[in-house]
Amino acid sequence: MNAGTINPRIDHDFNARESVASFDDEFGKLTVLSDKAMADLPREADIVFDRESGSKLDLYGIAPGRPVFLWIHGGYWRLGTKEGNAFAAPGLVDHGIAVAVMDYSLAPAVSLEQIVHEVRAAVSWLHRKGNLYGLDARRIHVGGSSAGGHLTGAVIADGWRSDYGLPEDVIGTALALSGIYDLEPLLHTQVNTWMNMNMGTVAALSPIRHIPQASETDLILSVGGQERDGFLRETAAYHDACAAKAMQVQTIAMPKYNHFDITGTLSDPASELVEATARSIQKVT
């Protein structure tokens, strides 16, 4: 795709960076929270979970018998690090849940197919190896924001678990924030200048097109009320599509939050998203 095919209205609706007064300020706040999490929490760092790509994850709050929650960062698949997303750990760790924060290979050096594979490989690694760290890894809980919300949806999706030797009910709770669940609109945005997606990608990797029937996953969705319309539409459509497939799904309204500070609430044990996720994990584990 070239820049001439960009639709200005759709591009506006999915431009997260320009949806806030200062992206640098929002990013800086999350960096402060992540730096504090890395300083305060016990961490097992730089664990390679996928030998082929060399991708790594960090484990926070390891303790015997704890369930584990995997956080998948956003950044439109081309930006982000596990260190910069450590903010996702403190809230759930305070509730007795270990948190894995992962890296994945970034576009445009790799395709979206490769990125999805690495996220699924992280789930597989945690399920197979989590017990070596004393964790209860019978079921893996996952979450992510923006592109990470899409990747969370790719983990919920059907049709891949047997290829990784995983049971169908391996995903317990999923928390998807500000996600993109139908990739087709992004074909008409600047995002596709680095993602190089086509309708084949849309068909294969749009979570809304691969929702399992009556999944045992407990899905929690949210999107900031101050976000642009593309993200609001995607969340509403995915909620309805999951409900139509008899999934357990709820959407938590966060009217005062934008695309970035909604994720920062995960550092607070008393935040609505953390408490809802912790309750769900404790219920389904």
Name its key features.
8 strands; eight-stranded mixed β-sheet; alpha/beta; 35% helix; Rossmann fold
* Fraction of helical residues: 25-40%
Strand content: 15-25%
Tally of individual domains: 1
Note the overall shape. globular
**Poorly predicted regions:** none
Describe the largest sheet: 8 strands, mixed
Number of strands: 8
Indicate the radius of gyration in whole angstroms. Answer: 17 Å
Structural class: alpha/beta
CATH-defined topology: Rossmann fold
Distance between the termini: 44 Å
> What is the tally of helical segments?
10
CATH architecture: 3-Layer(aba) Sandwich
What strand line-up does the widest sheet have? 1-2-4-3-5-6-7-8
CATH class: Alpha Beta
Q: Could you tell me the mean pLDDT? A: 97
User: How would you spell out the order of helices and strands?
Assistant: HHEEEHEHEHEHHEHEHH
Organism: Sulfitobacter noctilucicola
Keywords: Hydrolase
Pfam families: BD-FAE
Protein name: Arylformamidase
